Amino acid sequence: MPESAELERLVRAAALRVTRPRIAVLSAVHAHPHADTESIIRVVRKNIGEVSHQAVYDVLRVLTEVGLLRRIQPAGSVARYETRVDDNHHHVVCRSCGATADVDCAVGHAPCLIASDDAGYAIEEAEVIYWGRCPACAGQELNQETARQEKVRRVG
Q: Rounded to an integer, what distance in angstroms lies between the CA atom of residue 54 and that of residue 37?
């Protein structure tokens, strides 16, 4: 995770004023990629004390607008934020617990998927979300299925 001085440099390079909430939010997202707003608020409050929900929402919006953060919102999920903004990567989301991880593009440069018909659009980005079970949830489901089979075997 970048040091505070590096975070301050990033904020200044984006032509923004350095403030404690901006540095705290940027630090929180660096430390907790794909965190939702409520999680970010908890981390920021732990690190700098009282800060309003609205202040964090405002900082997230501004940092996203200037390209220091990326906002993603998988279907059925709240918005999540990450600092990996310099490429066109995708995400994998666990259907059970909602855990989210980065997935590099399968092929080529951004956009890494070429539309068969762009309908005249100047396509800038392709977003793919893979859905499945994270290792922890998949293991838990396997253990539950094994226990169920064992119970059926004992009864039958």
A: 11
What are the start and end residues of each CATH 3.30.1490.190 domain in the chain?
87-156
Cis check: omega of the bond before 74, within 30 degrees of 0: no
pTM reported for the whole predicted model: 0.80
The CATH architecture assigned to 87-156 reads 2-Layer Sandwich (3.30)
CA dihedral 9, 12, 14, 19 (to 10 degrees): 100
In 3D space, the residue among 131, 61, 64, 147 whose CA is nearest the CA of residue 93 turns out to be 131
CATH number corresponding to 1-86: 1.10.10.10
> What are 54's two structure tokens?
């609205």
- Residue 71 in tokens: 């906002």
pLDDT in tens, 45-104: 999 999 999 999 999 999 999 999 999 998 888 999 999 998 878 899 999 998 999 988
8 Å CB contact between 71 and 60: yes
With the C-alpha atoms ordered 5, 69, 45, 32, is the resulting torsion angle positive or negative? negative
